[in-house]
Specification:
By secondary structure, the protein is mainly α. The chain is built from nine helices and no strands. The chain has one domain. It is globular and about 50 Å long.
Length: 211
Amino acid sequence: MFELITGFLEKSGYFGVFALMALENIFPPIPSEMIMPFAGFVVARGDLNLAGVLLAGTAGSVAGALPWYYAAKVYGCERLKRLAERHARWLTISATDIDGALDAFRRHGRKTVLFGRLIPAVRTLISVPAGLAKMSLGRFLLYSSIGSLAWSGLLVAAGFMLEDKYTEVSKYVDPVSKAIFGAMLAWYLYRVVTYRAPAKAASCPKQHEER
């Protein structure tokens, strides 16, 4: 897994970083906790530029957040929750998840967009209440970009600083990364097979426009 991802990033360059981070935010097959540290390894070896990787990672993360933001903004709460309920077996977001994200947004407002980008699993969900509250695109992009840049920077720095121990670290990172990916795949398949529709989600509250 270690050689697979770093090799892919070496060949695909900044577009590969952008694409993986965008995909991770839409439907997370490989978490950013694996993507960006590996990108940091590649930067430290001189195959990619640090600024380019940070820009590509941040842009990909924000681009991946936009589909959920627009889906929420266009479809609205009730329609989006009905969509989630119909396809919750296959999606990574359920109607109950939407309720939780809305509750967090009501309590903390726009700060949830900024700091939510720093929290694993929340990064995707936080786009939904922002869209439902009709937060302006400019504000959404600003807060998402700041949070995504900070998160990407931390992960890239971790990979960059370990580069001098590349051979030693790869011996441990490779089996661990395979185990993480395998566990995620197993969890998803288990979720699909054992999924049972939850109790009916709460009705959507009236949303005030967030500017």
